[in-house]
Specification:
It comes from Trebonia kvetii. This protein has 227 residues and is of the alpha/beta class. The chain is built from eight helices and twelve strands. A hairpin with a 2-residue loop joins strand 6 and strand 7.
Length: 227
């Protein structure tokens, strides 16, 4: 497997290169984010090892850029800081796994093998359908170039529709995913929030993409083209 290592510490980069080559991998090294981004777009890698602390822009930003460009090679992030916040930032940026320094080279090799088994499955940081986009980590959404002002529940509801474009979602499914409490068949909370969402996502743009499926629930139209 060909592996890209983005690491600015020369000794660490050499150590990783030697250890991975002993495992039978071909290894490319980049010392900063700019070079790492260029190599990742010019070559096909089975996995990318990405240090968080880089001299130009950090590993979180590099990971976001790669995912934004449609680069889906599994990413293993390395950091010297063992904090929940850093792990969350890395995963939200599109990383697949996280390893805290100092670490065992045997564990690194095992994690790479596990990542390689996943393959290059699309894991976009920003989910989209047509001209609707949503960044779950930043809690922001857009219709084309217009940012939408949505409440937390409206964002959660839009995210659910964007993750299931074209699928008919029942009221029970929506309740369980967005509100996480037992569905009350007499409650119209779903209908109310779908209407709130339509007023912000569809109506101002002359669109009708949130469709009612009579007697069942709702769906977001799939496969439509941007105007």
């Amino acid at each position: 497997m060909r592996v890209l290592v983005v690491e600015d510490e020369i000794r660490m980069a050499r150590l990783l290169k030697r250890a991975l080559e002993e495992e039978g991998h071909a290894v490319d090294i980049a010392a900063n984010g700019e070079d790492g981004a260029w190599l990742a777009t010019e070559n096909s890698y089975g996995a990318i090892i990405l240090d968080v602390m880089l001299p130009d822009f950090d590993g979180f930003e590099l990971c976001r850029r790669l995912r934004g460009q449609g680069q889906w090679a599994p990413v293993l992030m390395l950091t010297a800081r063992d904090s929940v916040g850093d792990r969350v930032r890395g995963l939200d940026a599109g990383a697949d796994d996280y390893l805290v320094k100092p670490f065992s080279l045997l564990e690194l090799a095992a994690r790479l093998r596990a990542l390689a088994r996943r393959g290059e499955l699309p894991r976009p940081v920003v989910i989209a359908e047509g001209d609707l986009r949503l960044d779950p980590a930043a809690k922001r959404a857009w219709r084309a170039e217009t940012e939408l002002r949505l409440s937390p529940k409206e964002l959660a509801l839009l995210e659910l529709f964007l993750r299931h474009p074209g699928d008919v979602l029942t009221r029970s499914q929506i309740i369980e995913a967005v509100w996480d409490f037992a569905y009350d068949g007499g409650s119209n909370v779903v209908d109310q929030y779908v209407n709130y969402l339509r007023r912000k996502v569809d109506a101002p743009f002359g669109r009708h993409d949130l469709e009612t499926v009579r007697g069942i629930g709702y769906r977001l139209r799939h496969g439509w083209k941007r105007p």
